[in-house]
Amino acid sequence: MRVRPAHRDFERSEPYSEQWLLIECPSGEAEPTKYWLSTLPAETPLKGLVSMAKQRWIIERDYEELKQRTWIGSL
């Protein structure tokens, strides 16, 4: 769904523009497990939004793993 973030809105002269809110609710889980805000255009198809969100998660996970390897390798 499209939402308008309100974080520190009181400090702005105009509200934030609308963004996509994606919520992952895996079957078998009592509550949602992940949330994403995206500034991709409103016309972006749901499949594209999910694909981009998952790719970013993979990149961030790989980055953290690489940092860990680099730190251990420098000992």
What does this structure look like?
This protein has 75 residues and is of the alpha+beta class. Helix content is 37%, strand content 17%. It has 1 helix and 3 strands, in the order E-E-E-H. It has a 3-stranded antiparallel beta sheet, covered by helices on one side. The longest helix is centred in the last third of the chain and has 28 residues. The chain is extended, with a radius of gyration of 17 Å. The termini are far apart. The mean pLDDT is 85.
Distance between the termini: 47 Å
Instruction: Give me the side-by-side strand order of the main sheet.
Output: 1-2-3
Helix and strand succession?
EEEH
Provide mean pLDDT, rounded: 85
Brief overview:
37% of the residues lie in helices and 17% in strands. By secondary structure, it is an alpha+beta fold.
Primary descriptors:
75 residues, alpha+beta, 3-stranded antiparallel sheet, 17% strand
SSE topology:
Layout: E1 2-3, E2 19-24, E3 34-38, H1 46-73
